[in-house]
Amino acid sequence: MLTIENQRVKAVIHPRGAELQSIYHKGNKLEYLWGGDPAFWGKHSPILFPIVGALKEGIYYYQGNGYALGRHGFARDQEFGVESAGADSATFLLCSNADTLELYPFDFELRIAYRLLPDGLSTTYSVRNPADPNNPAGESPRDLYFSIGGHPAFNLPLQPGTDYADYYLEFDQEETAPRWPISRDGLIETHSLPLLDRTRRLPLSKELFADDALVLKHPASSALTLRSSKTEHGLKMEFPGFPYLGLWAAKGADFLCIEPWCGIADSVDTNQELPEKEGINRIGPGESFERTWTLALF
Asked: Domain 2-297 class?
């Protein structure tokens, strides 16, 4: 485990999956991150790479070959190296290797950088395509296709003495946004269902996730705040540049996942071709991709 801290915030990260294990605010004396009870869901904040969600039939195709890849990809189960670490920041690095190349035939460098803020935390995902753009060996340069996303789970209720249903999400923009249902196989259905109608507020309840996650495509907001009228404590997440958002909780569990995604699960009618996958990102040889989400704890 690696611990970073400043005067007000302390975070703990495990090199396996470069996964946050704890975000504790010393001033508020509150633990914001879910503890990972395996009776409900044994994760805390996994990194979703090189896919987000499930693939149709668990398989994608690239250049005529089929590859099997489990839900949310493999990064969350890989051992990252610690590229740098300071008192209040740390960067973890995962590079393609023999194991990943069997599942995903691309060379890549994936960096996860955590930096503490005065009352919060920033998380930066950096993906680099290490292929040589000058192509000295005469081989065709290969573009890198990938999705990436966050899956942090926050304690809910956050404050002792409050209930799950005492909380709500407040979007930074008025939203008229449907939810995209998820099939039994974890795929995105072709027809949406009503969810938000000219409002900034989504009341929370455990029943809200009875049919799996709430998936939003291209919401107007790039930030939302977890609030309650019963306590002054909550959190704000900012996620500019993430075109998809997932909200989820395991059945009966006391947590809420707020998931900014650059990518999405396969649709039920996908052709399974990776370059044509909805939400896929592409970077050329020598190019990089970077996105950051931040938390403000109060």
From this structure: mainly beta
